[in-house]
Amino acid sequence: MLFIVILQNFENNLIKKGYKMEFKISEAIFGTRPAVEKPSLKFLETIKEDGLREIISKHYDLLRQSSIKDLFPQDDEEFEQAKINSADFFIQICGGPDYFNQHRGNPMMVKRHAPFKITPKARRVWLECYIEILKDLDIPEDLKQSFWNYLDIFSMWMINLPED
């Protein structure tokens, strides 16, 4: 765990010195829940709520075409609502209004994801879809890295099955 924090600090220092970030997917060990740091408040300040909603929408659109598409609602209306719920969660996590709590209650994301078969492989696909969206996002690299670091570690918490 300490190694991950040191590595992230090293990567953040490189980014501040002008190096382009790389999206590294940390190895997920089934049954572990490492400490996760919320993204920088400047991330949401920079991209605004509409920008984050657009990121989430594009991410879900990629997921719908991915090998884990069956983990998401098949009905178009339910799928669009899932996008809204996810965006509400991420806006709240990034320091914005508590839309998720207002509309859905306490996040309890591990419990909410329990009915779905989420393996380390499914997590990797989920993250790879985010990479496709984030790699071209025109914001400072340190802010992008902050959001990525959250996604990378937070996603480990959702794994509820060992590899297939």
Characterize the structure shown:
This protein is mainly α. 61% of the residues lie in helices and 0% in strands. The protein contains seven helices and no strands. The chain has helices at 2-16, 41-63, 76-93, 99-104, 109-113, 120-134, 141-158. The longest helix has 23 residues, at 41-63. Mean pLDDT is 89; it is low at 1-7.
Series of H and E elements: HHHHHHH
Q: What's the overall average pLDDT, rounded?
A: 89
Quickly give the structural class.
mainly alpha
For the secondary structure, the number of strands is 0
How much helix is in the residues?
Answer: 55-70%
Radius of gyration using CA atoms only: 15 Å
Distance between the termini: 26 Å
Q: Unreliable runs, pLDDT <50, ≥5 residues? A: 1-7
What is this structure's SSE topology?
Elements: H1 2-16, H2 41-63, H3 76-93, H4 99-104, H5 109-113, H6 120-134, H7 141-158
Helix pairs in contact: 1-7, 2-3, 2-6, 6-7
Give structural attributes:
164 residues; Globin-like; mainly alpha
Summarize the structure.
The protein is mainly alpha-helical.
